[in-house]
Amino acid sequence: MKRLTIMLAAAAGLAISASGALADTTIKLVEVITSPPRTEFLKKQIAEFETANPGIKVEVVSLPWGQAFEKFLTMVQAGDTPDVVEMPERWMGLYANNGQLEDLGPYMAKWDDAKTLGDRAKQFGSTVNNTQFMIPYGYYVNALFWNKKLFKEAGLDRPPETLDEFVEFSKKISAIPGKYGYCLRGGPGAFNGMHMFMNIADGKGGYFTDDGTSTINEEGSVKGLQMLADMYKNGLAPKDAVSWGFNETVTGFYSGTCAM
Fold it and tell me: Out of 3.40.190.10, 3.30.530.20, 3.90.1150.10, 3.40.50.300, which CATH number does the structure's domain 148-254 have?
């Protein structure tokens, strides 16, 4: 069975793979968190890698994020398994437990730059069977983006500091014709954003308590989800946001359709 290397560091993942590659070899790399500028940056890194490793070529397959999970799974099931893949760490268990991922530990032992990885990166990369299947290239940080121009138009001079203010400010902004308070992501990939509000309302992080019980049905979590549902029903988010994925959400914010 061909095993793939999870790449959550473009250059680093390739550097590790190169040690076992032969001249006149083509490495297939799949990226799933795609955008034109990001793909161009990745191709620049690949060009540097190919220059440093004559005879090794890298073929890039870019999957749109909204359909990436299904498309990548279909590729693997059809036997079209890449050599290196970028994926969220939450996908790792599926492929690792099926014996489809390569243990990067032996490669990292020979990789000089492995010493630059912090303990947190190693921890995230080895959450399945305590085996280093992944090398993270970064961490996601939840943050609120707010359109100062729309806020000012609605008589607001600062971002919300609480969930109650988040709803209150959204109402004021949505009173402006053609504008909305929140760019709700209700389509592909919606759960992460919704779960963030559920966690905030519940006052907890993560998905489970220490004893392994899911927090999703706790009173606070339900309150956070209901808040989003009520905001949508009350017109504080665009009507078609119920089907928005990542690209539509970003476009909604940058176009000035919604303020947060």
Answer: 3.40.190.10
Token couple for 168: 């209150």
3-state secondary structure 143-160: CCCCCHHHHHHCCCCCCC
CA distances from 71 to 4, 17, 31, 33, 61 (A): 16, 23, 12, 13, 11
CB neighbours (10 Å) of residue 203? 10
CA–CA separation, 153 and 169 (whole Å): 12
Is 5-124 a CATH 3.40.190.10 domain?
A: yes
29-40: buried (b, 16+ CB within 10 Å) or exposed (e) per residue? bbbbbbeeeeee
Q: CA distances (Å), 166 to each of 74, 173, 203, in order? A: 40, 11, 16
Determine the pLDDT at residue 2: 55
Mean pLDDT of 114-136: 88
pLDDT of residue 14: 38
| pLDDT attached to residue 35 | 79
Q: Which residues contact 72 (CB under 8 A, 6 or more apart)?
A: 30, 32, 63, 85, 87
> What number of residues does the chain have?
260
Please report the pLDDT score of residue 19 as a whole number: 46
From CA 224, how far away is CA 171, in angstroms rounded? Answer: 17
Q: Which amino acid is at 55?
A: G
Prediction pTM value = 0.70
**Sequence ranges of the chain with CATH classification 3.40.190.10:** 5-124, 148-254
Label residue 213 left, alpha or beta by phi (over 0 means left) and psi (-120 to 50 means alpha).
beta
